[in-house]
Amino acid sequence: MASSAETQKPFPQPAAGYTQSFWRTELDVLDSHRSTPELPKETDILIIGGGYAGASAAYHLFPEDQQGTTPNVVLLEARELCSGATGRNGGHLRPDLYSMTSTYTERYGIEAAVEVVRFEISHMKKIEEFVRKEKIDCDLTFTRSYDIYLDADHLAAAKGFYDFLVGQGLDFIDDIKYLSQEDAEGTAKVRGAKGGFSFSAGHLWPYKLIAGLIRIAVSRGLNLQTKTMVTEIGQARTPEGLWPVTTDRGIINARKIILATNAFTSALAPEYSKAIVPCKGLCTHIEAAPGAPYQQLPETYAIRRGPGAFIYQISRKDGSIIVGGAQYTYKDAHEQWHNNPDDGTLIKNVENYFDGYMQRTFFGWENSQATVKHKWTGVMGYSADSLPHIGDIPGKPGQFIAAGFNGHGMPVIFLCGKAIAQMARQSMPFEETGLPKLFETSAARLDPVYNDTLG
Ligand SMILES: Cc1cc2nc3c(=O)[nH]c(=O)nc-3n(C[C@H](O)[C@H](O)[C@H](O)COP(=O)(O)OP(=O)(O)OC[C@H]3O[C@@H](n4cnc5c(N)ncnc54)[C@H](O)[C@@H]3O)c2cc1C
Predict the structure, then answer these.
(1) How far, in Å, is the centroid of ligand 1 from the Cα of 87?
(2) CA dist list (Å): 203 to 85, 98, 177, 184
(3) Rounded distance between C-alpha atoms, residue 202 and residue 324, angstroms
(4) d(CA 90, ligand 1 centre) in Å
(5) pLDDT tens, residue by residue, 40-96
């Protein structure tokens, strides 16, 4: 007989301990909440995962103008609320207007690629409306984002694609401004910049957004169960048509399941093991010394050293900086980050990289005495084709997925959560959700043609 250690699936479920993220320094009252002391035995809809995707699905399953019978909805989160990638990210809300668009255009054609861009732009509006309407205190700030290139050839390639988009006469292109070397060094203040672009973007406190969504859902009837790890979803439904779901607190039977497990999806749905791979990233919080002079940087940044080598950055209202990335420093050391779900440890090759980063990178920070106050890792769900997987899980009626958001979930998840809620609650077909066609999960995408996960 197998021992319990052998029957458990240790990989790639969320690690038990984790590094301390800045965003989790102010915890919500619901952080370790359980709506009922016991796990319900049965539910209409079960959401697995308490990050942005699970929270958005939960919020949208309980619309303000609910019609018909309200379903029973339970959300299971293995650790505390928003303790995965969403609680450990860069807080950058930045639509991708031309970067991956180039890859998608090559692979799928300009129409499909532009559908993704338009979706991300529309998403910014929706988030703004939601945050204002529900009065969520999450530091949502809209500004410009600088995309700065340090390598002239890389910049020339990006400018070539930008010129191609301009030639297409696309409506969103007017928002993108090309920056000369003088602008990139003088206005954006980046040392050694060769040029770049700027466009509209934003930033926020991701944990507070998720807590806001969950508070509303709980107030409308969501049963939230934190610190409850799902270890298995049964392979067949019960005679009553329910999926048996095993957790470390017993079994719950669910008519429908939404997998919002992102990086950790393949532990519960092994068919996604090639399509969504857990990949670690590192992020930091940096502050200038009290009273020391430093240049305010109200815009957000991506600073690119070359293809695939970039650093993302936002400034908070208090002048402190959230900055992370620099994957190029550890990209070749696969064991440190690739297919690695452990956010309990830092990434060796990059863990000291951000010491002195602001002083080396920006004019006006030379005397700031800026130091790293927090550094942490998080696990992203890198998808093989860089696109999220949304929709019906192939061959599993009543099971849905919203996962595989890469390092780019903030400008897409709110509406993906809405779509998956509509599919689960109202049996809405994917085509009617308004999501880009490329986001739909499918059997073909489970055996991927591309492997973007290695960068
Ligand atoms: C360091 C870092 C920086 C990033 N920066 C940005 C950024 O600036 N902008 C941006 O757009 N994106 C960024 N991202 C990506 C972004 O954070 C993700 O795309 C997004 O948060 C994914 O949300 P999610 O809800 O799908 O996943 P998560 O937030 O990871 O939520 C999944 C949840 O499922 C739970 N779970 C998994 N398995 C189980 C199980 N078996 N049982 C119960 N619960 C389970 C996990 O514990 C987790 O809480 C970054 C990510 C990282 C790690």
Answers:
(1) 7
(2) 16, 19, 20, 21
(3) 16
(4) 11
(5) 999 999 999 999 999 999 999 999 887 778 899 999 999 999 999 999 999 999 999
The CATH number, out of the four listed (3.30.300.30, 3.30.9.10, 3.30.300.10, 3.30.565.10), of the domain defined by the range 142-201+278-382: 3.30.9.10
CA of 291 to the centre of ligand 1 (A): 36
Domain boundaries, the chain: 9-89+207-275+385-454, 142-201+278-382
Q: What are phi and psi of 198, to 5 degrees?
A: -140, 150
Give residue 177 CA to ligand 1 midpoint distance, Å: 31
Q: Which of 79, 89, 338, 406 is the pocket-test mutation for ligand 1 (most atoms within 8 Å of CB)?
A: 89
What proportion of the chain, given as a percentage, has pLDDT over 70? 98
Q: Whose CA is nearest to atom 35 of ligand 1?
A: 49
Whether 50 lines ligand 1, by a CB cut-off of 6 Å, is yes
Q: Please state which architecture CATH assigns to domain 9-89+207-275+385-454.
A: 3-Layer(bba) Sandwich (3.50)
pLDDT, tens only, 207-251: 999 999 999 999 999 999 999 999 999 999 999 999 999 999 999
In this model, does residue 7 exceed pLDDT 60?
A: no
* Minimum CA distance residue for ligand 1 atom 16: 409
- Strand-pair category, 42-48 with 250-259: parallel
Question: How far away, in angstroms, is 325 Cα from ligand 1 center?
Answer: 15
pLDDT for 233 equals 97
- The amino acid present at 337, given as its one-letter code, is W
Read off the pLDDT of each residue in 170-174 and give the average, rounded to a whole number: 94
Q: Best of 99, 380, 382, 415 to mutate for ligand 1, by most ligand atoms within 8 A of CB?
A: 380
CB of 266 sitting under 6 A from ligand 1: no
What does each C-alpha distance from 50 to 85, 133, 455 come to in angstroms? 10, 22, 27
What is the Cα–Cα distance from 23 to 206, expressed in whole angstroms? 7
